[in-house]
């Protein structure tokens, strides 16, 4: 009997008897289930990561979720917004993060135009999983529910994303706060419920005013993971790693709380290097 090692850690699969002792996806589902079970409990911590060393450092520090977000387009690839990100970009960076074999759940964003139909959404999700993602995230509510269902029914965990949707920034003409009126709040709640019914294990809430984020968090049965929604309004938080580390000084969102200044540290180190090499 030949026993092959699984693609990334996890479980052994027999190739002769056609009986999978345990499929590698069990690990991903278990990780997603353990995040889902944190509703109302210990806050969920999530950060974006786009490369191997960052993924290793964040994982060693004990982060729960590594999000290979399509913010990649802005803070790594130098595009003005996320609408330029392609599936090939995402696959390249998901694979780099996956090589760190983190304990944290690796979530990969479905980039714009890669989930227009349930069939396309599932195909894109499968490609991200083949690259090393353990779960995927997509933007939107009711109109995405069938796509989410197609992916979750195939055994791939899905994270929702509501509120400000960066992939729609051009249609919306900028980044605006959401959930300011009772109508908007109700639409967000209905969207979230449609996502939950379709099987999401958690939902990112982006740039929703704190009162509404709190209301949604109280009403929903899966963890809400906030960004730009105020402090302690959600079941967890996600931040873009460059905002946390101060390594992208050209644009810092107003809600970001940097914990370091890597831009300054980099400038100082490079200036010292130049002086040393010049013998000055
Ligand atoms: O792409 C990303 O980094 C995200 C976060 C802002 C949640 O979607």
Could you tell me which ligands this complex binds, including any ions or cofactors?
3-methyl-2-oxobutanoic acid
Number of strands: 10
Strand content: 5-15%
**Going across the major beta sheet, what is the strand order?**
3-4-5-6-7-8-9-10
Give the N-terminus to C-terminus distance in angstroms.
66 Å
- What is the H/E order? EEHEHEHHEHEHEHHEHEEHH
Helix amount = 25-40%
Pick out the low-confidence regions.
1-22
So how many helices?
Answer: 11
Calculate Rg over CA atoms: 20 Å
Biggest sheet features: 8 strands, parallel, barrel
Question: How would you portray this structure in words?
Answer:
The chain has helices at 25-36, 52-60, 72-75, 87-98, 118-131, 145-153, 169-172, 182-197, 210-219, 241-245, 262-277; strands at 3-4, 13-14, 44-48, 65-68, 105-109, 135-137, 158-163, 202-206, 224-227, 236-239. The protein is an alpha/beta fold and 280 residues long. The strands form two sheets. An eight-stranded parallel beta barrel has the order 3-4-5-6-7-8-9-10, surrounded by seven helices. Strands 1-2 form a two-stranded antiparallel ribbon. It is globular, with a radius of gyration of 20 Å. Mean pLDDT is 92; it is low at 1-22. The structure holds 3-methyl-2-oxobutanoic acid. 3-methyl-2-oxobutanoic acid binds next to strand 8. 3-methyl-2-oxobutanoic acid binds at residues 48, 67, 69-71, 109, 204, 206, 227, 238, 240.
